[in-house]
Amino acid sequence: MDIRLLLGSTNLYEFKYLMPELSVFFGAFVLFLLDIVMKSSETKKRIFLWISIIFLAVSIFSFSYSRVYFKDVFSGTYTIDTLGMFSKIFEIVLTLLVLPFLHTYMNRKNTFYYEVYYITFLSLLGMMTLSSSYNLIVIYVSLEMVSISFYIMTALFRGSFISKEGAYKYLIIGGISIIIALYGAAFMYAASKSLDIRAIMSSYNNTNAVYLIVGMILFLLAFAIKIGIIPFHFWLPDAYTAAPTPITGFMASAGKLAFFIPLLRLMPYVNQHLYSSWMISVSILAAVTMIIGNALALVQSDIKRLLAYSSIAHSGYILSVLSSNSSMGLKAAIYFVFVYSIMGLGAFLVLSVLEQSEVWDNQIKNIGGLYRNTGFLSISFAMFLFALLGIPPTVGFVGKALVFLGLAIKDIYWLGFVLILATAISTGYYVRLVVLMFMKDVEIHFRPKYDILENVSIGLLVMFTFLLGMFPFVLWNGISNISEFLFKIANLR
Amino acid sequence: MEYVTKGAGLISFSMLVPIITTLLIAFLPERFTKALAFIGSLATFLISLYTLKFLDFSNLSNIYLYENYPIIRELGISYSVGVDGLSEIFYILSTFISFLAIAWSVKDIQIKSRLKEYYAMFLLTTTFLIGVFTAWDLVLFYVFYELTLVPMIFVIGVWGYKLRLYSAYKFFIYIFISSLFLLFGIMILSADSFKQTGHFSAFYPSLITLHLPLNEQIFLFVLFFIAFAVKTPLVPFHTWLPDAHGEAPTAGSVVLAAILLKMGSYAFLRFNIGLFPEAAKHLWLIMVVIGIVTIIYASWMTIAQNNVKRFVAYSSVSHMGFIVAAMFMLNFQGFRASTIEMIAHGFSSAALFMIAGFIYNRLHSFNTKTIAGSVRYMPVFSIIVALTGFSAMGLPAGSSFWGKFLTILSAREHSLTLALLVMVSAFFSAIYMLYFLRNLFLEGKTEGSFLIFTDIRGIKLTVMLSLVVLMFTIGLFPSLFFGIFDASLLKLLNIIGIFKR
After folding, report:
1. CA dist B132 to B12, B182, B469, Å?
2. B19 near A CB under 8 A
3. What pLDDT, on the 0 to 100 scale, is given for residue A386?
4. How many CA atoms lie within 13 A of A421 on its CB side?
5. What is the torsional sign of CA B268, B272, B278, B279?
6. For site-directed labelling of A362, which of A226, A311, A323, B304 has its Cα 20 to 30 A away?
7. What is the percent of chain A with per-residue pLDDT over 70, rounded to a whole number?
């Protein structure tokens, strides 16, 4: 695409479709300016919290401003569609739920970094653009935007050694993944003379097949690193442990959701020529990730690390159903991505409340008798763990059942059995936590303090976990339409 | 098959009553807990009895009290509950046993702490059990099947005996992992329905009309078998049971043995035979042999136990072997034998666990050496023990008699050898019951410390007596029960077709 064409065709009128993104951007800008002019004080902390909440609320409401459900803007580099809108709303809501925890977490740790607010906003902006583009350049830039924000947030407690170690690992491996993505993009561009994934994937012919497949697999690998697919996962447990726990939750929920969206967008364009290479690479990665991720989680003694490994395993579940190249598979994958972000975030947020007391050090044995210390937190934690395990009637069960259905419809039985094996391994550590929480005597006595916003946030997540599981059609009908639509467009070309 | 909607909503209502009671218990002070739980579970039981009024006893293979609300229309998953004859009897059994378990706990001195949670768990179990036995949608069935696990691990793990954590953990892991195979099987079945008819379905009556090839049927049969064989349990998969039943509090063991095990055998009858008749015909002999092995192995294990609760637990395994062996004879008498035995075992195992729990209350021991001869000084209790023991042994007029007798009859339809094999295994199950009675009546000390025990009385006596009366009702008037579920079994037989070896 000619660069002059790109600039010339930009008209300001099209910015109205970017209202949510723009309000997040202005939010980051306003917070940045405020940080410079204001002196640190209790009021400033409060003001930052509420300003962020207001900007995010504005961003959500601005979705109703332009009622367009499918449109390519800015010469096709940016796509407004239902999947994008859906995931953007989800990302904003997840950020909203994280914010109160950030505030109290840093307050209790006595190290308040105001920059975390606008860095969160910038990473949210990156996620939003990542969720709504088919263009390789835009994907690349937003990938960088999200990742760099994550590096900074991981290293937020710059005094701590663990924090620096995790962030450094993340930076190195993340940098490599970006390079690989760029390399894959170059291959795809060379093969098809286009930067648009839709055009690239449908330009398949016998002469460019090799380049296209190599490009696709490299691009996939880059995302595999970002999502934390084994064997590219080494940064993830360290980075997740190093980051402040609310940020870990943010990375595991909204971040993972955003990183998965380009893969979800890619999947309908995998035609029968590309299918075998896609299927082999994706399903093998998925199988390895599910088994090893859960096996590694089983031997952890630190709950935060355990949840990090369980997050890896869940990426494996989602990836496994992506290998079934059908609209049912896509629905299951989208559903699982969304619901994982709910339950994963919930588990990390509960942990972040617990971490605010000084005696708590995330060791598994300390969780013994947690129910005696704090009923609400331990019951919600048990809900999230049951959801991650896939006990009905939680969202995790619906997600897992749909994954099974997506695999069954394409007769990929072996992957189904791998999934059963992986879940069997995961039963070990989830149930151990529940058993310890409710059936042991109290290990350490403490009363976690949490303010009303945190309570509301965890309560909402528990409610989502339950109600969306009992009435799955609420989420399902939307996702089903989205997926059918993506497939319809893909087949039109 | 017809769907009769008269009286619809009653089943959902009876599932709602325990949940409402649970909420009340959670928010009211602890002194109301026992009364509320008692009234709530009694109300549930009475509602389940009241549903009998809406049944047409001349045609019980229809689905009565039918409700259907779609959950995910596109995937054919719906909240569809209703009862036919077979479901109805388990529906009433589960509400009844849950009520008895709660009534027993009211005076159980083992339950000292966390009363609110304890009764809440039992009430929730009641709801989920009703769901299991009345669900006509396989996904809905699976949901309730899994949900029964959650309160049960808390019952075992919080109020159990010494090894309770280990047992709860083991129980959950065994059943959860095995049931994942069931989930995968259901999803494959749903996908098959999509490939044949163009739309997904998990609705049982529409799934039985699918024409699956034999190898597909066998594959799915095995997937379902793994789940239900662990739940039932059959012999290589039974090791969770003695631990779970042995360590659970009395009422927990009662519910576990009397109803939770029946979920497995009910599902064998309903799903493995109903959905995959060709595979069942293909594999029947293997299943019968597994059943007989279960009977013999578990009987020997029973005799070797020195813990009376584990003794009763192993005797349950042996009974379940009978149930499965009878079922897979695949003829009418076999089905009848299996179903009547499920009900009989529901009553007798409940009574046996209550006996064990009662003796523990008096002596604080489950060891057979310690408790030997203890019932002699409690005259009323000793009569109840004797009646229960003889009834569970399978003496004529006792509850297990018809199950065993009809199993032998149905085996005779196949061959004499099989019938003889069943007779021999029935003989083993008599041996361990005699051991049990001898231990409690004839061994041990003859004078001294046992004299101070108070006899059984009050609510516990009522509970035990009602069980004993019901056991002998089965023994003396089996046609009362046959009348309810025969029509459903005949319908099942129609699906199978004529089957002779």
Report:
1. 12, 14, 27
2. no
3. 94
4. 16
5. negative
6. A226
7. 97
User: Could you read off the pLDDT of A377-424 as tens digits, one per residue?
Assistant: 999 999 999 999 999 889 999 999 999 999 999 889 999 999 999 999
User: How far apart (Å, rounded) are the C-alpha atoms in residues A176 and A197?
Assistant: 22
Q: Secondary structure of A161-202 in the HEC alphabet?
A: HHHHHHHHHHHHHHHHHHHHHHHHHHHHHHHHCCCEHHHHHH
Q: Does B291 score more than 90 pLDDT? A: yes
Q: What is the number of helices (H) and of strands (E) in chain B?
A: 22, 2
Structure tokens at B200: 């997904």
pTM for the model stands at 0.94
Q: Does residue B377 lie in a domain region? A: yes
Q: What is the ipTM of this complex?
A: 0.93
Q: Identify whether B372 is part of a domain.
A: yes
Chain B nearest-CA distance from A414, in A, is: 11
Mutate to test the interface with A, among B12, B22, B27, B72 (most CBs of A within 10 A): B72
Share of chain A above pLDDT 90, in %: 51
Q: CA B197 to CA A208: how far, in whole Å?
A: 40
> Which is it for strands A70-73 and A78-81: parallel, antiparallel or unpaired?
antiparallel
Sequence ranges of the domains in chain A: 299-493
Which residues of chain A neighbour B75 with C-beta distances below 8 Å? 405
Mean pLDDT confidence for B207-232: 92
Q: How confident is the model at residue A5 (pLDDT cuts 50, 70, 90)?
A: low
Print the domain residue range for B415.
276-501
Residue B247 lies in a domain: no
- Domain assignment present for B11: no
- Helices and strands (H, E) in chain A, number of each type: 21, 2
- The whole-angstrom separation of Cα B48 and Cα B42 is 10
Overall number of domains in chain B = 1
- Taking the Cβ of residue B482 and every Cβ of chain A, the question of whether any pair is shorter than 8 Å is answered with no
Residues of A with CB under 8 A from a CB of B: 386, 389, 391-393, 397, 400-401, 404-405, 407-409, 413, 416-417, 419-420, 423-424, 427-428, 431-432, 434-435, 438-440, 471-473, 476-477, 480
B274 near B204, Cβ under 8 Å?
yes
Say what the pLDDT of residue B445 is: 67
Enumerate the residues of chain A whose CB falls inside 8 A of the CB of residue B181.
Answer: 420
